[in-house]
Design a protein that fits this description.
Elements lengths: L2 H87 L5 H15 L5 H24 L6 H21 L15 E4 L5 E4 L2
Antiparallel strand pairs: 1-2
Helix pairs in contact: 1-2, 1-3, 1-4, 2-3, 3-4
């Protein structure tokens, strides 16, 4: 073999080796990229799945809150109607029947009412059941009118309390006029909640 052939073969072999090294190096990088892409895609899908699950949980929670708020409003309306009927029946023979009806209604619906509305309903129902007795005990004695008036006030304040507890925001309110929400604590004290 001639030296030129050896040099040519050596040159071709070196070029082929360099090209092969570059080819296999790039092939290795591509394979690593494919693995990285697969891992990244898997992680993206996991995060996406977690996000979708959380979003669905949030949607379900908000839906249940909407249903509960709707039910709560319905029960406040029912309580309001019962309160008016109670006021009308206090001085009639059917008063105790109405008191029993409200007691049964409370047994099935009290938890839908706000704490303040629930206590006002219980107190007014109790006052109505005692009102005739308070009147009879104090009739002709010249005293006790304060007890009668205080007892009657518990009954007559009930519709207004229920109305305030079920109060809805005005539909004419613009976004600039967002009302401050007010809630009640367990003792009936106002708690301001900024929107």
């Amino acid at each position: 073999m001639e030296p030129i052939e050896v040099a040519l073969i050596t040159f071709v072999a070196a070029a082929f080796g360099a090209a092969a090294q570059g080819f296999f190096s790039q092939k290795g990088k591509n394979l690593a990229d494919k693995k990285d892409i697969a891992e990244i895609t898997t992680k993206i899908e996991e995060v996406k799945h977690e996000f979708e699950a959380e979003r669905e949980d949030r949607r379900a929670f908000n839906q249940s809150r909407f249903v509960a708020a709707d039910k709560r409003l319905d029960k406040h309306q029912e309580a309001f109607s019962l309160a008016l009927e109670l006021m009308q029946s206090v001085h009639r023979p059917e008063c105790m029947k109405k008191v029993d009806e409200i007691q049964a209604w409370l047994k099935n619906n009290a938890l839908y009412l706000t704490p303040r509305a629930r206590m006002a309903m219980i107190d007014a129902n109790h006052s109505a059941s005692q009102h005739t007795t308070i009147l009879d005990i104090n009739r002709g004695t010249g005293n006790g009118s304060e007890k009668v008036q205080a007892n009657w006030k518990v009954i007559t304040d009930l519709p207004e309390i229920l109305q305030k507890e079920a109060d809805l925001p005005n539909f004419n309110t613009t976004s600039e006029q967002k009302p401050k929400l007010i809630d009640k604590d367990a003792y009936g004290n106002d708690i301001k909640i900024e929107p």
